[in-house]
Amino acid sequence: MRIISGQYKGRRLTAPKKLPVRPTTDMAKEALFNILNNRYYFDAVSVLDLFSGTGNISYEFASRGTEHITAVDTHHACVKFINQTASEFNMPIQVLKSDVFKYLESTNLPKFTIIFADPPYAFPLEDFSNIPALVFKNKLLENEGVLIIEHSKHTNLSYLEYYSYSKSYGGNVFSFFENPEETGSNE
């Protein structure tokens, strides 16, 4: 796994082999950040990285200047690895060991500009659908914010409420969810 842009561009990170993860490929990550780069100034956003695994996405945001990053994962070894890496590189990543769904149901959560979720590809559709349901029910996105769910090309999320569009890169798909009332508020 490598950081593809920003302050730590080119740095390679090696996660322990025993982690139960499937990091986003460099090709897919680069394409995703090209989309986001055309829409946001990374030093002006807040990011929530759900099912953060190795922290691959959080490191990329931190390398590009994002100061407010929260990474949530339930696996102790993943949380430990992200904490160690963030500390080593002095990255502003707050790491929480929590079940993602319990976290999203918490009260008094801040709003985020970008929420990225990379759940296990084998998740049941009901679990995939609970992610946007909880994010929008609890109003966790800022105005002009976006929820991005990474999933397999064999999973279709286009029927879910707040779905906007998808982009495919190899076997990876990023589905984007937005609140039309909020995204249209500047018109």
Automatic annotation (TrEMBL):
Which keywords annotate this record?
Methyltransferase, Transferase
The protein's matches in CDD domains, at most eight in alphabetical order, are given as: AdoMet_MTases
| InterPro entries for the chain | DNA_methylase_N6_adenine_CS, RNA_MeTrfase_RsmD, SAM-dependent_MTases_sf
Q: Which domain of life, per UniProt?
A: Bacteria
GO MF term set: 16S rRNA (guanine(966)-N(2))-methyltransferase activity
- Taking the record's annotation, the residue ranges forming a coiled coil are none
- Enzyme Commission designation: 2.1.1.171
State the SUPFAM superfamilies in the record. Answer: S-adenosyl-L-methionine-dependent methyltransferases (SSF53335)
The record's section on Pfam families has:
Cons_hypoth95
> By what name is this protein known?
RsmD family RNA methyltransferase
Q: Which organism is this protein's natural source? A: Bizionia sediminis
